[in-house]
Amino acid sequence: MTIESLPPEDELVERLKNNDVQLFERVVKAYHSAMYGVAYSIAGQSIADEVVQEAWVSAINAIHKFEGRSALKSWLIRITANEAKTRLRKESRSVSLDAVDENWATDTRFTQQGHWAEGNPEWDISSPDDLLAADELQDCVKKHMVKLPDNQQQIINLRDVGGLDMDTICNILDITASNARVLLHRARDKMQQVVARFQRTGEC
Amino acid sequence: MLSCKHTIAQGTDYLDKELGFWRKVEMKMHLMICVNCRRYVKQLKQTVIMLSKGQFKQPSKEQIDQLKREYKETNSKQ
Ligand SMILES: [Zn+2]
Fold first, then answer.
1. Which of A34, A184, A27, A28 is nearest to B56 (CA)?
2. Beta partners for A116?
3. What is the rounded distance in angstroms from the CA atom of residue B32 to the CA atom of residue B43?
4. CA distances from A124 to A203, B38, B39 (A)
5. What's the pLDDT tens digit per position in A85-132?
6. Residue of B nearest to A61 (CA)
7. CB contact residues (below 8 A), chain A span 86-145, against chain B
């Protein structure tokens, strides 16, 4: 499902400051999902809902001070990330970084010489709208997003789902730019592979 | 010449325009002659757009109602 279009940014913020409840509901529906992804990746599943709820309340209380120096969505994502960081992830995660680092040497997509072993076929479902409309595929993407190692999951949620710029992300996660780029690529590459396998085999 | 494996490893930097001049030239030359990597870069871009527009977790009706109440109350105080 895609988000319904919201009014232009200036108008949006002005109306939110002026008690437009209907518009507020549309904003919640449009951005809740991205905020949840960020909360989940940083604070863990068990308290993600709580973190998002708290982030919204902080945002409601601060909207009158919002000056529009960043997009509203970026502002909400940053509030969510900060809220999430103050809460500790409680459940333990099973993915180890070693398992991910192995991928380069053992990536079965490529031959020893670094050529595609079996080529890379076109996707049957290829436009973003068609990809989004394929429910089973979206379920599959969702399932694999949460299986990414923590740091990859955090970056892809902050960057691609949340739309933050890399400088802001490096600040939030306290990592270097080059490290962030490597992690972002690993996460995107993994998600490309998930979509590719689903298209090739129909399996998740 | 870059291998395919090295080419796709630069996919994110290429899409985000983070490659230096020569690495970009090298990458473009590879993409010119390699349909598999060309497809990969396109698919990586489609994946990113899909993620930016996807709705993975809709708020429940209760959550929305609770937030609307919070919004109304906070606004009426100001
Ligand atoms: Zn190639």
1. A34
2. A110
3. 16
4. 14, 16, 12
5. 998 766 656 554 445 555 677 899 999 999 999 999 999 998 989 999
6. B74
7. 107, 110, 113-116, 119-123, 126-128, 131-132, 138, 141-142, 145
Q: How far apart are CA B35 and CA A118, in angstroms?
A: 12
Q: Which amino acid is at A190?
A: K
Q: Do residues A71 and A9 touch, judged by C-beta distance below 8 A?
A: yes
**Residue A181: which of B18, B42, B78 has the nearest Cβ?**
B18
Report how far Cα A22 is from the mean position of its chain's Cα atoms: 26
pLDDT tens-digit map of B3-29: 999 999 999 999 999 999 999 999 999
pLDDT computed for residue A1 by the predictor = 42
Note the helical H segments in B1-78. 4-9, 11-15, 21-33, 35-53, 61-77
Burial B9-29 (b: 16+ CB within 10 A, else e): bbbbbbbeeebeeeeeebbee
Residue A62 to residue A4: CA distance in whole angstroms: 24
Q: Which of residues 164-193 of A touch B (CB under 8 A)?
A: 166, 181, 184-185, 188-189, 191-192
Q: Using the 8-state DSSP alphabet, how is residue A92 labeled?
A: -
Closest CA to A172 of A41, A58, A45, A46: A41
Which residue stretches of chain A are H helix? 9-17, 21-43, 45-62, 72-85, 97-101, 103-106, 128-133, 135-145, 150-156, 166-173, 177-201
Provide ipTM, 2 decimals: 0.93
pLDDT tens readout for residues A165-189: 999 999 999 999 999 999 999 999 9
Tokens found for residue A104? 């380069």
CA distances from A149 to A10, A87, A89, A184 (A): 37, 19, 14, 11
